[in-house]
């Protein structure tokens, strides 16, 4: 195989991969924008108050956490920064949100991208969610203990 045919095959393969991902990402982003504009995500976050209790964080933390989990780090960071500027988040809230989002940001988008290249949907989805829940839970307990000794 000469260089030009290798280059052509690589280019076509890359374009096919990008198009496969675009078929997932574009509709998903449209749906997420509709949910965001209709304030449906805000209503859902209110129902997720048990998560705030689990991690011992403020209820105001649930919305930025959910946005980062669903929309990804860019949207999540924007909401987190906005919440910090409005002074709605304590330091602990911020740490727990960041720790959770390290393992579980853009959970739908990233999961579907990996499924497009052959990953198991449910295994990946639940593994990421479980790791994020466990790590954030234990981090919230460690932060509480560290605060008691300072």
TrEMBL record:
Keyword Transmembrane helix included in the entry's annotation: yes
Spans through the membrane: 12-32, 62-82, 94-115, 121-139
Record domain Nucleoside transporter/FeoB GTPase Gate: where: 18-108
Pfam families with a match to the protein in the record: Gate (PF07670)
Coiled coil: none
Record-linked InterPro entries: Gate_dom
Keyword terms, alphabetized: Membrane, Transmembrane, Transmembrane helix
Superkingdom field: Bacteria
Protein name in UniProt: Nucleoside recognition protein
């Amino acid at each position: 195989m000469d260089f030009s045919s290798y280059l052509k095959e690589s280019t076509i393969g890359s374009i096919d991969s990008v198009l496969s991902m675009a078929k997932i990402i574009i509709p998903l982003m449209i749906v997420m924008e509709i949910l965001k504009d209709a304030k449906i995500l805000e209503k859902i976050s209110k129902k997720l108050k048990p998560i705030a209790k689990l991690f011992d964080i403020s209820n105001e933390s649930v919305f930025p956490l959910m946005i980062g989990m669903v929309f990804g780090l860019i949207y999540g960071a924007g909401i987190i920064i906005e919440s910090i500027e409005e002074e709605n988040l304590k330091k602990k809230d911020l740490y727990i949100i960041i720790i959770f989002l390290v393992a579980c940001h853009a959970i739908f988008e990233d999961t579907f991208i990996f499924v497009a290249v052959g990953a198991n949907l449910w295994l990946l989805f639940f593994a990421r969610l479980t790791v994020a829940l466990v790590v954030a839970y234990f981090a919230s307990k460690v932060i509480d203990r560290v605060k008691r000794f300072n």
